[in-house]
Amino acid sequence: MTGARLAVLGVGAVGRSVVELADEYGHTVTAVADSSSAAIDPDGIDTEAVLDRKADEGVVGDADPDAALDADYDVLVEATPTTLGDAEPGFSHVAHALNRDKHAVLANKGPVAERYGDLRELEADSDGRIRFEATVGGAIPICSTIDDFGPDHITAARGVLNGTANFILSRMAAEGLDYDHVLAEAQDLGVAEADPTFDVEGIDAALKFVILSNVLADGDEEYTLDDATVEGITDIPGTALELAAEDGRTIRLIGEATPDGVSVGPRLVPDDGPLSVTGTLNIVQLETTHAGRLNISGRGAGGPETATAVLSDVSRLTE
Amino acid sequence: MSDTASEVQTHTIRLELVDEPGELLRALEPISEAGGNLMSIYHERGNVTPRGHIPVEVDVSCAPDRFDRIVDSLREGGVNVIQAGSERYDEELVVLLVGHLVDTDLSDTLQQVEACANASLTDLSLSAPRGNDDSSSARVRLKTKSGTTDEVLSTLREIADGKDLHVIEPLTEGTQ
User: Fold this and answer.
1) A12 marked as binding residue
2) Residue A109 annotated in ligand binding
3) What protein family does this chain belong to (chain A) (predicted)?
4) Which of A75, A186, B90, B147 is the most buried (most CB within 10 A)?
5) How many CA atoms lie within 13 A of A140 on its CB side?
6) Are B139 and A246 an interchain contact pair (Cβ–Cβ within 8 Å)?
7) C-alpha–C-alpha distance, residues A55 and A76, integer Å
8) Are residues A120 and A250 in the same domain?
9) Can you give the residue range of the structural domain that contains A236?
10) Do A215 and A143 form a contact (C-beta atoms < 8 A)?
11) Which pLDDT belongs to residue B2?
């Protein structure tokens, strides 16, 4: 198959980048929808015009957003904001695609973290398949690496999967500043959102490690956010990082997905070790049964970075 | 492994002594009498166990059969032996404690850790802010017996929970 037809739901940083880069990957975008509108063209939408209209008028087209679900496409890209609990409307979008025997690629963590079993069940009854590399670690190929090794050959995953929290901790350590100062700086730089709760309370990282646990358990067990022990970084004073530094260590928000469960919290790690990545970088360590430890690091967030993972998934599904 | 039975090993004995003159010497006598070689004594004067006694830790090197005799004669002599074994405090654990450390009596916190856990405090570094409102931090270095790190950490967590303190744990798995 040369090139797939894509329906892209969600026009945030990731959805927009998918629309922009699809052509470069040889794919055609036949539908785009945001929460209030849709643009549909079976021959391929005019991506530039659609994104300009989104920027100018706040809508992508004149069609009803639900119309995108019924458009002609091979792969549905679900890039709407992550929601918890029933993970709607993302879950229903993916269900709709699978019911039509179409593939779905998710950048939205909600359905994979909160309703993994339901997703796999729908997939089993469908000719379509799901992939979700973009939900964990942006551009870093983590899920596909686990796929390649086979979940049976990976015993645990751990690492840093939230760039905002990592940026804050590494700036606190480098500058000797307190949390509130660095958070304000991160917000000015656009590294942290106006409401940083998801990132600094560890929820975003926990969702990613829940997803990894689901992948590693391979159907033997199902995890949701409720199963994770989660602790954030908001209570860490600058003095804690100073004391850590005196001892050749630093603090990072580390997540772990092991047979014992999922946890995310601030941990002491060696200053010069692989887990103490700085700035917004992410890293994941995979423990393998026969090949020791793998360290994979890179950019874990950002529109084009995450879109790269989405488009790689599309290529895997349609090659 | 039969040849190791007679091998000389280092054993750690944890005792509790009444705070009276001559108590330490009285406790140590049976060790040399039974042929044990006294390697080190860690007499935690100023530290008091929940029962009001002074904890003492003694490292003795001797063959295993002699070690049993030493423990027996200590107990016969009325010395309170808390723990005796060939495990050594050979693993190091560094944690950070964060919160209102001073208000919640840091020395009591550390005594509880030593009393309840298989751990011995080797280093403490405290960093407290100027004001009273902000939380302070302490870096605590503990020696633990091999294989008990998880146990010590969970005891530590409980003690910290009780005082609304926050423990920043190390990643314990493997070498980073």
Assistant:
1) yes
2) yes
3) Belongs to the homoserine dehydrogenase family.
4) A75
5) 24
6) yes
7) 23
8) no
9) 144-299
10) yes
11) 38
Check residue B125 and report its DSSP letter: E
Q: Show the domains of chain B with their CATH numbers.
A: 2-85 (3.30.70.260), 91-168 (3.30.70.260)
3-state SS, residue B72: helix
Q: Do residues A57 and A9 both lie within one domain?
A: yes
Considering only residues B129 and A223, tell me which one the structure prediction assigns the higher pLDDT.
A223
Same domain as A85, residue A103: yes
- The encoded tokens of residue A116 equal 């993994």
Considering the domain architecture, whether residues A192 and A206 belong to the same structural domain is answered as: yes
pLDDT at residue B110, as a whole number = 87
The answer to whether A270 contacts chain B (CB < 8 Å) is yes
Q: Which of B95, B126, B140, B171 should we substitute to test contact with A (largest number of A Cβ atoms within 10 Å)?
A: B171
Give contacts of A 131-160 with B, CB under 8 A.
156, 158
In this predicted structure, the answer to whether residue B1 has a pLDDT above a threshold of 50 is no
B49-70 residue pLDDT tens: 777 788 888 888 887 778 888 8
Nearby residues of A101 by Cβ (< 8 Å), 6 or more positions away:
A126, A127, A128
Average pLDDT over residues A123-130: 97
CATH number, domain with residue A199: 3.30.360.10
Residue A113 sits in the same domain as residue A98:
yes
Question: Do A95 and A13 fall into the same domain?
Answer: yes
pTM: 0.80
Inter-chain CB proximity B169 and A265 less than 8 Å: yes
Rounded CA-CA distance B115/B158 in Å is 13
A102 among known catalytic residues: no
Q: Looking at the structure, do residues A153 and A184 belong to the same domain, yes or no?
A: yes
Which position among A96, A103, A208, A252 bears the catalytic label? A208
Between the CA of residue A240 and those of A243, B124, B128, what are the distances in Å?
A: 5, 13, 10
Whether A9 and A118 share a structural domain: yes
Kindly state the tokens that stand for A1: 């198959």
Taking CA atoms, what residue in B is nearest to A157?
B173
Q: What is the pLDDT of residues B34-49, one digit of tens each?
A: 888 888 888 776 777 7
- For residue A242, which residues of chain B lie inside 8 Å, CB to CB? 127, 137
The answer to whether residue A109 neighbours chain B at the CB level (below 8 Å) is no
Across the interface, whether the CB atoms of B168 and A254 are under 8 A apart is answered no
